[in-house]
Amino acid sequence: MEYTLTGLLPAALLIDLPEIDVQHEEIFRRIEALKRASFGTGPVSFEECHDLLDYLEWHFASEESVARERGVDFADHARVHDQNLHMLRRALAAVHDGSQDVHSFLRYAEYWFERHIAEEDKPFADRLRNRAA
């Protein structure tokens, strides 16, 4: 299967697993679209914010599937995913109840995701490559 990147994902965040890099880029695209919409004339759709978190959950399952296919232990990484999804859902709930604004949520999501790729996914990709070698 061929995967095409559009250039939205910074080169420093590429993990050289095309399927996963394309998914990472899609997550950033969704965050950027929500940021643009949040500066528009109307409110950001909560449905689109929930769709972002649903896509993240699907992406995490995709990473787990890749790990399973290649025989790489994923338990610690899965715990990180679960904790992060919980934190992001809690942050979105704060937007719903008005105790946090959507811009803060989106900045948090973007920062968290960049850090997650750099600190968690890059070592994960290295383990996958080492297992294949």
Note the gap between the termini: 21 Å
Unreliable spans: none
Number of strands: 0
Rg over C-alpha atoms, rounded to the nearest angstrom: 15 Å
| Biggest sheet statistics | none
- CATH class, named Mainly Alpha
Reported by name, the CATH topology is: Four Helix Bundle (Hemerythrin (Met), subunit A)
Shape: globular
Order of helices and strands: HHHH
Q: What is the CATH superfamily classification?
A: Hemerythrin-like
What do the pLDDT scores average to?
90
Number of discrete helical segments: 4
CATH architecture: Up-down Bundle
Number of domains: 1
Structural class computed from helices and strand pairing: mainly alpha
Helix content: over 70%
Strand residues, percent: under 5%
How would you explain this protein's 3D organization?
This protein is mainly alpha-helical and 133 residues long. The chain has one domain (21-36, 44-132): Hemerythrin-like (Four Helix Bundle (Hemerythrin (Met), subunit A), Up-down Bundle), CATH 1.20.120.50. It contains 4 helices and no strands. It has helices at 18-38, 46-70, 75-96, 102-132. The longest helix has 31 residues, at 102-132. It is globular, with a radius of gyration of 15 Å. The chain starts with 17 loop residues before the first helix and ends with a helix.
